[in-house]
Design brief:
The complex is a heterodimer. Chain A contains 17 helices and four strands. Chain A has helices at about 15-20, 20-30, 40-55, 60-85, 95-110, 115-140, 145-165, 175-185, 190-215, 220-245, 250-270, 270-280, 280-285, 290-320, 330-340, 355-370, 375-405, and strands at about 170, 185, 250, 320. Chain A has a two-stranded antiparallel ribbon. A two-stranded antiparallel sheet of chain A has the order 2-3. Chain B has a domain at about 15-95 and about 160-255: 3-Layer(aba) Sandwich (Rossmann fold), CATH 3.40.50. Chain B has helices at about 55-60, 85-90, 105-110, 130-145, 160-170, 190-205, 215-225, 245-255; strands at about 15-25, 25-35, 40-45, 70-75, 75-80, 90-95, 115-120, 125-130, 180, 210-215, 225-230, 235-240. Chain B is globular and about 60 Å long. Classes of the chains: A mainly alpha, B alpha/beta. Chains A and B meet through helix 9, helix 11, helix 12, helix 13 and helix 17 of A and strand 8 and helix 4 of B.
Chain lengths: ~400, ~270
């Protein structure tokens, strides 16, 4: 899961045969214009070391469990945003859309006493519908997504206020299912069973790919093996730490399901391939017979669905549907997480796993700062600096690509 | 898949265009364009800026259909009103901008829009068969003697010549008979130009018909079998390469040789 695009390997005769696979991989990374998840993972390790040095409570199972719950909403929204950014567009409505979904859910279950499932379906359907409408305007009429979603977000804000203000601005949730989702954890034994099954499936697919390619004289087995080891360390390390406290939070599981499903859709299906193609060069995609408008519309619908899910998860975590959570922060955090996670704002480059790592960076900074008792002023400045570093790296890599494209 | 098409000396040429006319409003872009392309041959289409080369190409590729005239493919008159019709007839165009997705790998670009997929159910998901695509692509690249790095390398990190090779390979991957190339060597260095010209020649040897648009007279005399020169929207020269000299061709392009119609071989004033 670490690097999504394998570094290019030069098959230039004797030179490559003398070097070890590791040296070649390293050279590939150094020359690569698409670093995948490597920079954000490196940044995350640095951030964790710094905070652990400053406060020994940072890397405790208990705090990491908190962190795991904190990344869920930012991560799910970032996932939605990454779909849109991969097209080279932006969605500014995700914050208020998610709060609107939560409001509709609370209205349906608390005041209309509808079943929880119906409430969830209504909330997510509304967010998906808004995504569809915005996608129609963007793809059919060609209005820039920036403006469409700015307007869409304002409308969602207005609707949210209209729903919640008569009830004092926030509606506490009471149903058992949502409380369980928001607060309970998966049993440690089941965590191990599930993660082992998951990793087994992933390893089988990866090793099968390596075997087939090696059989046909293809290189790249080393990078794939490295990735496999990295995934194993991260997955089992996380399960171990979370089990040392209370287990894997249900919230995190739902986010991870959405994440893995998105990884499958974007990397292994024809739709995903076309999504990247439209983001990379829409004109080339059109000439290749791909329905650019169809892809754009589908992406807005998927993002809308994820935004609705994020709204429900947020309400479940807080136990309340509140108009005060929509204020800017939640949306900008999601965009920041997407960019920090290596998604290029120029479109066509990045990976959905950036949502996980970008959200981890953002949550780690605010969590660590809180542990240190730092003022939120400092927190904003640090987050801002990290965001600037991420976008600078993206721009530098893009310039490098443009130069090499003319070589 | 396009293995080598047998280059038989058929009576009907692969492509023949007769009396093409095209106007954009009051502007006459094409007045009277005629030329033929045979299987296994490279036909160079030459002309000054505004002579009508691009319009002719767009007409054959279905991007901008002609107003008058005949297009005959293997002796049969065909109507090409849309790019997909040209594709269905086996006509592929490599445009100057190459139309590659830089962020995607070589193999992904070769199969863009025509990916091999397997669906576990009737409605999907359409799962990419990446390994199969790579194996097939490598086989085709081998027959074209195109040498590229690992096929998942993003196109962005390729050289100009390699990108051109990817675009050309994509054009011939799909049962095409006629490949049109618009200025394939315009932005390339000496070595890369030689490589692309080698590829152009190879395509012809394998039985494809090739239309090559270029400004470079040296390239023309290196690879072309046939030369067609357009001037002010009409064909002013159609000749075998062996029948003409570069000076005559340049004269036809610039109009310093007053050639009324075709048959330039004896038209030296």
């Amino acid at each position: 899961m670490s690097s999504t695009v394998q570094p290019p390997e030069r098959k230039s005769g004797q030179e490559s045969e003398q070097k070890s696979p590791f040296t070649r991989w390293l050279t590939g990374v150094a020359q690569s214009t698409d670093l995948g998840m490597l920079p954000v993972i490196a940044a995350l390790i640095v951030i964790w070391i710094v905070f652990e040095t400053l406060n020994a409570n940072f890397l405790t199972p208990r705090n990491l469990s908190n962190l795991a719950a904190q990344i869920v909403v930012t991560g799910t929204l970032a996932l939605a945003e990454i779909y849109i950014i991969l097209l080279g567009m932006i969605d500014l409505s995700i914050g208020w859309n998610s709060v609107l979904a939560a409001s509709v859910f609370s209205l349906a279950t608390v005041f209309f006493h509808l079943p929880v499932g119906v409430g969830i379906a209504l909330g997510i359907a509304l967010a998906t519908g808004i995504g569809f409408l915005q996608g129609m305007v963007v793809s059919r009429i060609g209005v820039p997504s920036f403006v469409v979603t700015l307007g869409g977000g304002m409308i969602a804000e207005g609707l949210t206020l209209a729903i919640l203000t008569p009830h004092g601005g926030s509606v506490p949730l009471a149903d058992d299912f949502t409380t369980a989702i928001g607060t309970l954890n998966l049993d440690p034994l089941w965590s191990w069973v599930l993660s082992l099954l998951l990793f087994g499936a992933y390893a089988a697919v990866t090793l099968n790919g390596i075997r087939k390619r090696t059989a046909s004289g293809h290189e790249g087995g080393f990078a794939a093996t490295m990735r496999l080891v990295g995934v194993a360390i991260m997955l089992f390390g996380a399960v171990f730490m979370l089990n040392a406290y209370r287990g894997v939070p249900f919230l995190l599981m739902l986010f991870l399901i959405a994440l893995f499903a998105s990884a499958f859709v974007t990397k292994s299906t024809r739709f995903g391939r076309h999504l990247y193609a439209v983001g990379g060069n829409a004109e080339a995609a059109r000439r290749a017979g791909i329905s650019v408008k169809g892809i754009q519309l589908a992406v807005f619908v998927i993002a809308g669905f994820l935004v609705g899910l994020a709204g429900y998860l947020d309400a479940a975590r807080l136990g309340v549907a509140s108009a005060s959570v929509g204020n800017g922060d939640i949306m900008l955090n999601a965009v920041a997480a997407a960019v920090i996670g290596g998604t290029s704002l120029f479109g066509g480059r990045g990976s959905v796993y950036g949502a996980l790592f970008g959200a981890l960076v953002i949550a780690s900074v605010s969590n660590g700062m809180n542990l240190l008792g730092a003022a939120s002023s400092v927190r904003f400045i640090v987050e801002g600096l990290i965001l600037l570093a991420a976008i600078t790296i993206d721009t530098i890599l893009r310039l490098r690509r443009m130069r090499s494209g003319r070589a | 898949m396009s293995a080598a098409i047998a280059a038989e000396p058929a009576a009907a040429p692969l492509l023949e265009v007769r009396g093409l006319q095209k106007r954009y409003g009051a502007v006459v872009a094409l007045r009277d364009v005629n030329f033929t392309v045979r299987r296994g041959e490279v036909t160079a289409l030459l002309g000054d800026n505004g002579a009508g080369k691009s319009t002719t190409i767009k007409a054959i590729a279905g991007v901008a259909p002609i107003d008058e005239g005949d297009i005959l493919l293997e002796g049969q008159p065909v109507s090409i009103r849309h790019p997909s019709e040209a594709t269905a007839l086996g006509i592929q165009t490599v445009y100057q901008d190459l139309a590659l997705c830089d962020n995607l790998g070589i193999c992904a670009n070769l199969y863009l829009g025509r990916e091999l997929v397997s669906s576990p159910t009737a409605v999907g998901p359409h799962v990419l068969r990446d390994v199969d695509m790579e194996l097939e692509a490598r086989r085709v690249l081998k027959t074209l003697r195109i040498n590229l790095p690992a096929l998942d390398t993003p196109v962005a990190s390729l050289s100009g010549g390699q990108r051109q090779a990817v675009a050309i390979a994509r054009a011939v991957l799909w049962d095409s008979k006629l490949v049109i190339m618009d200025e394939p060597t315009a932005a390339l260095g000496v070595a890369q130009t030689a490589e692309v010209l080698r590829l152009v020649r190879d395509l012809a040897e394998q039985g494809y018909g090739v239309i090559l648009i270029t400004h470079n007279m040296q390239n023309v005399f290196q690879v072309a079998d046939n030369i067609a020169v357009l001037r002010l929207g009409a064909t002013v020269m159609q000749a075998r390469k062996s029948e003409v000299t570069p000076e005559q061709v340049v004269g036809a392009i610039t109009g310093t040789l007053a050639i009324p119609g075709t048959g330039a071989a004896g038209a030296l004033a």
